[in-house]
């Protein structure tokens, strides 16, 4: 939780023109926790809101995240830094959930990306370059098909079969293998086979 607040200290000290933050998509739900460290469902997103306000127009002392912010930043007794925090850093900010597979990585990994700018320019997000093999934009050649693990493995190297193990595979593993075989081999226009 405290690591995200460090971004504010960095903005305060260095004032970079453009800066980025990447995190899990649940970061958007960042809020207070109870005495056992569990998220308080009714206050989801409250701390994230304070974080955004601090980067943009200011985190006011009346905001529920004020106390956490000044403690995590170590500025409880620094009036100058607390004033900076309350006025905000004036950045334009935007965030998106992007999936690595849509940009050519051989993994399906949605992540939250947050961009802050202080140069008057617009925040521009990249257009996806890849898509599901059956998507119309892929079929028409506008997008490339998602890369798979099969695109990056070297199948010429020997490897042990999962079916000749001493211990049998777990039931859930067998179910995943079955689902994948159905989706990528049996019910697929271009089935995947290892050479």
> Taking strands numbered 1, 2, ... along the chain, how are they ordered across the largest sheet?
1-3-2
Radius of gyration: 23 Å
- For the record, give the distance between the C-alpha atoms at the N and C termini, rounded to a whole number: 46 Å
Give the SSE string: HEHHHEEEHEHH
Q: Give the overall average pLDDT.
A: 92
Instruction: Tell me the major beta sheet.
Output: 3 strands, antiparallel
Secondary-structure-derived class: alpha+beta
- Please tally the helical runs, counting DSSP H or I stretches of 4 or more residues: 7
Q: Helical proportion?
A: 25-40%
User: What's the total number of strands?
Assistant: 5
β-sheet strand percentage: 5-15%
Please mark out the parts with pLDDT under 50 across 5 or more consecutive residues, or reply none: none
- Shape assignment: elongated
Explain what the structure shows.
- With 195 residues, this protein is an alpha+beta fold.
- 32% of the residues lie in helices and 13% in strands.
- The protein has 7 helices and 5 strands, in the order H-E-H-H-H-E-E-E-H-E-H-H.
- It has a 3-stranded antiparallel β-sheet, with no helix packed on it. It has a two-stranded parallel sheet with strand order 4-5.
- The longest helix has 16 residues, at 171-186.
- The model has no long low-confidence stretch (mean pLDDT 92).
Task: Quickly describe the structure.
This protein has helices spanning 2-14, 46-55, 66-72, 79-87, 136-139, 149-152, 171-186; strands spanning 18-23, 92-99, 110-117, 130-131, 144-145. It is of the alpha+beta class and 195 residues long.
């Amino acid at each position: 939780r405290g690591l995200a607040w460090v971004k504010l200290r960095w903005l305060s000290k260095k004032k970079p023109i453009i800066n980025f933050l990447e995190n899990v998509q649940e970061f958007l739900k960042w809020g207070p926790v109870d005495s056992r460290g569990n998220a308080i469902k009714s206050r989801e997103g409250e701390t994230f809101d304070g974080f955004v306000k601090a980067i943009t127009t200011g985190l006011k002392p009346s905001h529920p995240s004020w106390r956490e912010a000044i403690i995590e930043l170590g500025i409880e007794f620094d009036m100058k830094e607390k004033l900076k925090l309350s006025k905000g850093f004036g950045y334009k900010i935007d965030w998106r959930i992007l999936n690595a597979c849509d940009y050519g990585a051989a993994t399906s990994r949605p992540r939250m990306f947050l961009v802050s700018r202080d140069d008057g320019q617009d925040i521009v997000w990249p257009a996806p370059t890849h898509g599901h093999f059956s998507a119309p934009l892929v079929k028409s050649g506008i997008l490339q098909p998602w890369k798979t693990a099969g695109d990056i493995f070297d199948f010429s190297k020997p490897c042990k079969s999962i079916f000749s193990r001493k211990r049998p595979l777990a039931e859930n593993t067998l179910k995943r293998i079955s689902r994948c075989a159905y989706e990528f081999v049996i019910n697929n226009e271009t089935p995947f086979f290892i050479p």
